[in-house]
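Hey everyone, long-time lurker, first post.

I ran two proteins through the pipeline my lab uses and got sequence/structure pairs for each. Pasting them in order. The first:
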Amino acid sequence: MALLVYLHKEEETATSVRYRFHTDGGTARRLVLDKQTETILPDDGNADGIFRAAAGKLARAWVTGQTPETLVHQS
């Protein structure tokens, strides 16, 4: 089964970045990257596979210091 997750930056401050993420036709959810602790947490507390895919894609971008406007995870 293929997985396609879209991330869209909603807000960025000096200490955090909030993204909306969803699959094709899926419900939009949100996650937050804490720049100081370098942690990514789901707003709804649900760390399921879709969240882990979105967080992993964002973490790979953050390693290089980037917080792009949009990201796409495909597996």
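...and the second, right after it:
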Amino acid sequence: MTNKPIQPSQTNAYYVQAVISFGLSLTAMTIAVIYLPAPGWVRAFLGLGLLYLVTSTVTLSKVVRDRQELSVVTTRVDQARLDKLLAEHDPFRVD
């Protein structure tokens, strides 16, 4: 049975880019809502919408990550079962 090391699915540069992009977009939208020439209740409503969007985005990314990790684990378990069956199989054995 071969043991494959777990490879990271993303590089550090990709991670840093994603964090910076998220931070910049959140900051820009927050500043835009604060300085919007509209009554306070409109800005508050848009701020709540922004907060809802951010929390739902984080939840969605966690769900996608969990689903991907589950498929990887399932694939590795299935591969281990197949490797075990192949290792125990003797094509020249006569019953």
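Reply from user beta_strand_b:
Welcome! Quick read of the second one: The mean pLDDT is 83. The radius of gyration is 24 Å.
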